[in-house]
Amino acid sequence: MKKMKVLITGGNGFLGKELRMQFQKNNYDVIATGLGKDRISYHNHIYLELDIQSPSKCLEVLQKHQPSIIINAAALTDVDRCQLNQSECLSINCDSLNNFIPYSIENRIHFIQISTDFVFNGKKGEYKENDFCDPVNYYGFSKLEAENKIIKSGVDYAIIRTSLLYNLTGNNFLTRFIKKIKENVELKIVDDQYRTPTYIFDLVSAILIIVKLKKNGIYHISSGESLSIFDIVCNFVKNMDSNTSLIKNISTKDLSQKAIRPINSSLLIDKAKKDFNFTPMNLNDVINRFL
Ligand SMILES: NC(=O)c1ccc[n+]([C@@H]2O[C@H](COP(=O)([O-])OP(=O)(O)OC[C@H]3O[C@@H](n4cnc5c(N)ncnc54)[C@H](OP(=O)(O)O)[C@@H]3O)[C@@H](O)[C@H]2O)c1
């Protein structure tokens, strides 16, 4: 049987790398694209340098490789940088979609957009897919603009909103904190911002299912377990026999970040549970299984 061809953007990113390897493992014909040189040393698929802001390069790649699925995992994800460089942020996170959507409509491509809990203002928490979006920072605004562009376009889409992705390896918020603790650096971590952390393999599994079942619409994919960022990090550090005394709690108002963060952007995942029996691991499952 002919393999399905999937084009993955942001292939050097934390999620993009995992998507490449898991789609390859699941017998897809993977075309990975990313900024600069390939950052995975060993794999069995094509990697191409591609800035998603370039209309001509994007069209060239699409016409040459003719994917039937596109997963857009490329984004400017540094929330404070987005706040300070708003035109760059909008260009990458939203305007670049113009280089994929018309081609996707014309060629009946299933377009998968990775989005974020930061489309919500965080005043309520426990957000459902159809709750009102009202981002409090420019990153969230750019991702919401992207969602709206996709929905209005008529492309066959799935928008997957996820939240605080982590793994025990790779470059993510958790490994960055743990590295600092191992270097005996004192950390100040907010204790009044709540997130639903997402184990990266749960997200990738959900994306595999959404692609396989050709699902459309918006899905929230996370653990569904709402915790403060402080508690998330402490839980891991405690179970790694590292020194939790190096972790100090701090409140949002004392952190003075460039961009405002939503206080409680936790995502409810009932729709994914109901539609395809999504059963993610919570934090303790991951700790018990891997630490
Ligand atoms: N990580 C999270 O906790 C989280 C939470 C909610 C939603 N998300 C969403 O999940 C998706 C993946 O995020 P991630 O955690 O994997 O972030 P990431 O590690 O920053 O990956 C994003 C990738 O996009 C690439 N990129 C930036 N500008 C580009 C451009 N013009 N052309 C092509 N590629 C470009 C980056 O390249 P460089 O590596 O060279 O910078 C990076 O490799 C994003 O859509 C993000 O909004 C992530």
The fold-level CATH name is: Rossmann fold
Number of strands: 13
Structural class: alpha/beta
End-to-end CA span? 40 Å
| Radius of gyration, whole Å | 19 Å
CATH architecture: 3-Layer(aba) Sandwich
Largest sheet descriptor: 7 strands, parallel
Unreliable segments of 5+ consecutive residues: none
Could you describe the 3D structure shown?
The chain has 291 residues and is of the alpha/beta class. It has one domain (5-169, 197-225, 267-280): 3-Layer(aba) Sandwich (Rossmann fold), CATH 3.40.50. Helices cover 38% and strands 19% of the residues. The protein contains 12 helices and 13 strands. The chain has a 7-stranded parallel beta sheet with strand order 3-2-1-4-5-6-11, with helices on both faces. It has a two-stranded parallel ribbon with strand order 7-10. A two-stranded parallel ribbon has the order 8-13. Strand 1, helix 1 (14-25) and strand 2 (29-34) form a beta-alpha-beta unit. Helix 1 packs across helix 8 (200-212). The longest helix has 16 residues, at 138-153. The protein is globular, with a radius of gyration of 19 Å. The N and C termini lie far apart (40 Å). The model has no long low-confidence stretch (mean pLDDT 97). Bound molecules: NADP nicotinamide-adenine-dinucleotide phosphate (NAP). NADP nicotinamide-adenine-dinucleotide phosphate binds at residues 9-10, 12-16, 34-36, 51-53, 73-77, 92, 114, 116, 143, 162-165.
